[in-house]
Amino acid sequence: THFGYQEVPVEDKARRVADVFHSVAAKYDIMNDLMSGGIHRLWKRLTIEQSGVRRGHRVLDIAGGTGDLTLRFSRLVGPEGEVVLADINDSMLKVGRDKLLDHGATGNIEFVQANAECLPFPDNHFDVITIAFGLRNVTDKDAALRSMTRVLKPGGKVMVLEFSKTDNPALTKLYDFYSFNILPQMGRIIANDAESYRYLAESIRMHPDQETLKQMMETAGLVNCKYQNLTGGIVALHTGIKP
Ligand code: SAM
Fold first, then answer.
1. Which residues bind S-adenosyl-L-methionine (predicted)?
2. Closest listed residue to residue 218, CA positions, set 149, 126, 138
3. Ligand 1 binding pocket mutation candidate from 23, 133, 202 (most atoms within 8 A of CB)
4. How is domain 10-163+209-241 classified at the architecture level of CATH?
5. How far apart are CA 170 and CA 37, in angstroms?
6. Which of 87, 98, 140, 176 has the fewest CB atoms within 10 Å, i.e. is most exposed?
7. What is the pLDDT along the chain (243 residues), one digit of tens a residue?
8. 176 is in an annotated binding site
């Protein structure tokens, strides 16, 4: 319904997303490194650097999955701060919790199973909210952006790190070949699951482009919305402030 991006019926999409992440949870981190050639680490580092998160802050990492951002935030906010890792999928949450426990970093972290569309937190609660490679999996993205805005403090920042659109035709061609041919093959060989990785490629192609997402963030009530293209627009980092 939104901007013509609704590719499958609503419940079908939610079920498919659940199946995909239950299926990939155990191999999620290794696949991330392999499929992106490790570059996702740079995209995430940049997000952390630009977050402005500091000691004592309250941070929400929604669709936090295996907790890469949460781990770094938990070190930044220190014992006076708090990081909530929220995800709709209990398999991903479990892998995330185990990983963060292994890193000895759980004192200031809370794990919450939640849907981004209706966040179970009070109004005006968080200083910073991140959603990394999560928004494209959410069925009602406008509802998710509204919900994030509601739980953000005035002056707080939403950061959306997500696959986006390349503006270079040669890069787009190469990238399409990679996502629709090589990526599902890697999924088949390494995770024994080509279908999930085909879904991921499709969901990337269906996701709103930079300007559309910026518009959606403004419609949700955020101001000062802007984005930065990373790796030629394969990924974009959008930010917006709650007035
Ligand atoms: N943020 C992590 C990262 O960057 O590595 C994980 C990203 S992973 C590609 C996408 C995550 O979004 C999955 O863990 C999935 O369960 C979660 N997700 C999908 N739909 C969601 C929703 N409606 N609400 C909250 N989380 C959702």
1. 66, 87, 115-116
2. 149
3. 133
4. 3-Layer(aba) Sandwich (3.40)
5. 19
6. 98
7. 333 344 456 678 898 899 889 988 988 898 889 888 999 999 999 999 999 999 999 999 999 999 999 999 999 999 999 999 999 999 999 999 999 999 988 799 999 999 999 999 999 999 999 999 999 999 999 999 999 999 999 999 999 999 999 989 999 999 989 988 898 888 888 888 888 888 888 888 889 999 999 999 999 999 999 999 999 999 999 999 999
8. no
3-state percent helix, strand, coil for the chain, nearest multiple of 5: 55, 20, 25
CA distances from 232 to 89, 136, 166, 200 (A): 31, 19, 6, 19
> For a pocket test of ligand 1, which of 13, 24, 92 has the largest count of ligand atoms closer than 8 A to its C-beta?
92
Q: Is 102 annotated as a binding residue?
A: no
The complex scores an ipTM of 0.99
Sequence ranges of the domains in the chain: 10-163+209-241
Q: Which two tokens stand for residue 183?
A: 């990526």
Q: How far is the CA of 138 from the centre of ligand 1 (A)?
A: 8
